[in-house]
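About this split. The held-out portion is used to measure sequence recovery: a designer receives only the structure tokens and must propose an amino acid at every position. Recovery is the fraction of positions where the proposal matches the reference. Here is one held-out target exactly as it appears in the evaluation file.
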């Protein structure tokens, strides 16, 4: 398992709700936390590791303890008001940062890794991280939410990622889109509804 980078097609895939939580999924979540910590991130969505699950992990703590690890399965958020603009980055577009406007407070409904319901009103960084990761599950990247002038500022970086992706594909390190899509559909038929 590894973190895929922009413009990998799985990043644009709309994740499907999970229908079961089992030992394999728990191992996947543990590996996601490991990769997230290794990349020094605070959140990671399943499609960032080339999986079609409607799932993401978060840990906003500097200590990185297990007690601070959060898993959100099949999240649904209702967006609040009070928009605010803050800088965001993404482990799938490393080194690119830009200001994104999002509500400062939201409500989230999800399941945790034990299948227990989560209902929470969230503010600040937690609300922003949940929105960022839920966007991933819907195939939306933070760069899609940039105003036009900011979009132009990061375009050279995005073009660099596109060239690297194309080179990896030409070297057969990344399969064609239809092969990726077939694999995602096979996984969905087993794990998703």
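Reference sequence for scoring:
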């Amino acid at each position: 398992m590894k973190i895929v980078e922009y413009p990998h097609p799985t990043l644009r895939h709309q994740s499907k709700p999970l229908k079961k939580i089992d030992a394999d999924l728990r191992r996947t979540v543990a590996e996601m936390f490991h990769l997230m910590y290794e990349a020094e991130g605070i959140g990671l969505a399943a499609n960032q590791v080339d999986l079609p699950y409607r799932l993401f992990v978060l840990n906003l703590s500097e200590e990185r303890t297990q007690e601070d690890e959060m898993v959100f399965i099949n999240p649904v958020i209702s967006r609040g008001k009070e928009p605010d603009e803050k800088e965001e980055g993404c482990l799938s577009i490393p080194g690119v940062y830009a200001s994104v406007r999002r509500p400062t407070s939201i409500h989230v409904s999800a399941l945790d890794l034990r299948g227990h319901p989560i209902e929470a009103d969230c503010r600040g960084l937690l609300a922003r991280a949940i929105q960022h990761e839920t966007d991933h599950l819907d195939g939306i990247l933070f760069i899609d939410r940039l105003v036009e002038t900011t979009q132009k500022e990061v375009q050279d970086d995005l073009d660099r990622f596109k060239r690297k992706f194309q080179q990896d594909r030409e070297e057969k390190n990344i399969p064609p889109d239809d092969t990726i899509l077939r694999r995602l559909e096979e996984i969905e038929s087993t794990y998703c509804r």
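Annotator remark: The helical segments are 23-38, 124-137, 148-170, 177-191.
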